[in-house]
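User: Predict the structure for this protein chain, please.
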Amino acid sequence: MKNILTTLLLFITVIAFSQQNLPPEIKGNWMTAHDSIEWRYSFQPKFAVFDSKFWDYKSIVRQGNEYRIHVVNGIENEQLIINIIDSSTLLIALEEENPILCTNRKAQKPDFRNYDTQAFEEPLLVDDSATVTGFIEDYDPELFTTTGSINYTSALTGLEDHAITKFEIEPDGRFHVKFRMFSPQSIYLIIKGSTYTKIFIKPGEKVMICLNKLLHEVTLDRSKWNDINDWQINHYMGSTGLLSEELILLEAFYNNLDPSNLKSVNKDLMPQLTYLNWSKQLYTHEIHVMDSLFNTMNTSAKARQIMKVSIEWNLLQDLLGMPVAGSEIRTIPLRQQYLNNLPALNTNSELNLLSDSYMSYINYLEFLYNDQVLGGFFLDRNMEYMNYFSNNITDTTDLRKITEWKASNISLNWPELMDTLSKDSFQYDSLLVEKYNNYFNPVVDMLKYWLLCDQKFKNRLALKEMDNALEKFNSDLTGQLYCMYKLRKFQEIKALDKELMDWANRRITHPVLINYLIEKNEDLVALNHKHDTYNVDSHIIDSIACDKNSDVFFQQIMKKFEGKIVYIDFWADWCSPCRAEFEPAAKLKKEFEGKDIVFLNFGLGCRKKLWSDMIRVKQITGYHYWLNKDQSKILDQKFGINTIPHFVLVDKKGNIVDSNAPKPSSNGKIREKLEELLK
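Assistant: Here is the predicted structure, written as structure tokens:
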């Protein structure tokens, strides 16, 4: 009887200490105490996190100084045993496992070298997916946005297409997003108004991230970012979690260093060969500083690899981009001596994909081939342009200009000319620019006839350029990625035709690259067949009568919409930033549906068929007017349009209230203006 009473009393005692609320001493994020960088557990009011999973509480029971927490994840059950040592230390164990001493304080100088001693090995280019799961601690839907996104620059889509995968944030702050990846790289987790932070992840991997309660502080007061950084806010769990932690800390330390007083030099006034030597000297110094930092921080093999590859490609990207980077001189013709002394890197290594700067380098290669006299394609391409225009235009003045240009340039020996001006001085660079402009400006002037060029001619130029790139790089990874970059630019407008696809099947040999290209082409063909008619809310006007020297046609169009706010979009089918605004514009239209707002679109510098096909395939609603060359010029001048897309806002009285209005994706700025005009 006594034993029964004792057992009953103990049972009553346990029940008395059972609770559903999480003890405040346990709440928070807990790392292994021996180095305090590996995030192992998180206990939040509505869920727990460990083993890169979310767990729901089933019961929380206190027995003396010990807490037993029963958690479930679907059909999985776990029992956690927690002893509170002090305010910053817990002893945590899964049932039947050895306890782990954990702390809620991050080490200021952690040791990463023993976590992963293996460097990355090829192959790295694959087609797979990755998953990011996470939560915002102390999430407040009134303070934070309810959506976020994963952004990254894909090795296949190039610089102009940033892969964006959006996700919803649940009321308790949790989120989950899965996205396609092709190589290990840094991606960006973006929660507008709160954070823009990095995660390093490999295809096929899953990473758990916590944005701790400090994010609440910096979201309330942006000035606190001066004293708080991502290292203090972010916790990562998973196979590459520690690498993400390490890279954020490493970059923070590196960015706070002043590697050399060389950086204070005014590089805009440097002659090109001086710039080349200065850049190499700065690079050598930064590598030395980085090596010292690696040793001081006990850096892992993978982090060393990523940082070194990034610095190497940063240098080459800067050297190729020098002609357009300075404020004093634009489009400097690079000397052969400059090109001969560019650093030689392994352009066939997939390890290059670890650096975002590698794709920037490929982007600058296009500039080198298409805008540099010694790039290998520039001179031939310009002669092809002028020959084509001379056979396809009728304007006698322009035909005479083309004849004069060909006569003066057909025997021009640029390498010899540049050798003559071989002295490395800013004045000689200026003289080269003058001669370059005398040569190239007439070509630029004739590009007003670009819309006359048929697809066969454009294909021929593209194929010559890609053959040239493959020859220069012996058909290696860099050459093939360059060709993918060019072909994907074609695909931004429409599916590749048979000639281009046949070439790609012969010359693009990496299976991931060619399979992706074929897939995207099939998607475009299917999309074209899917939308064989315009959206019912699309109004197409492909011809406007007007005096070529007057904007009366514009005034007549605006009269049709008197009494309504008009939001005007100047765009072109070939313009990727223009196309990037289609989705935000569609959301804006839906948001203001039924209001006195007209969405007016002008096709600027478009071929009529490609313009109308884009409206049909993308199902772009609103009023669409196609502008001919004269009309485009008139409105260019009227609104000072230097780049597209360009947006204009007109009030209900027909007054232009903003000739350079915010774009649809401008984080609410255009919404504020529209709502103000509707009052």
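The first strand starts at residue 18 and ends at 19.
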